[in-house]
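Late entry, written up from scratch paper. The run itself happened at the end of the previous shift, but nothing got recorded in the book at the time, so transcribing now.
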Amino acid sequence: MTAQIVPTEMFFTRGVGVHKHSLQSFEVALRQAGIAAYNLVTVSSIFPPKCKIVSRAKGVAKLKPGGIVHCVLAECRTNEPYRLAAAGIGLALPANRDDFGYISEHHGFGLTHKHCGDHVEDMAASMLATTYGLDLDPETAYDKRREIYKSKKLVVKTQATVQTAQGDKNGLWTTVVAAAVFVYD
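Output as recorded:
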């Protein structure tokens, strides 16, 4: 049986890149986010029990160029002038640190920074709440659901990192990325 690797730390990052080629705009966005030097492997949305959230600087300092790095990644690209692109990562932490939390990602067009941030926080909190058997109507306003989560002491904290940008006015590729990056000791 193979041993499982469980992240001990995680950091958030984001970036935007503009270039005449789509792939290179993605690379520029990763550079701005500080994670271009790694082989990124996207994973699903579980925040490990007892995992610590650290600063980007502290997390990147523990990574080695060329290393395989696991992350939850959201990205959005456009070459349409002025089209609003958004990428966001949300996190919901449980009240009990021995339980796992949820990370959500979303990317799309026309979302403001606030709308994307609220959306990913809501998704992460909703997913976490369902693990405790709480299944609320998704049409209920997030603020009302958030109060229910807190009153039942299920979700202790939510947060988001979001990157938005308007497409380059000259039609160059514009890419936005947001990521939750895992670090192992």
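Residues 9-183 form a domain with the Pyruvoyl-Dependent Histidine Decarboxylase; Chain B fold (CATH 3.50.20.10).
(Scratch paper discarded after transcription.)
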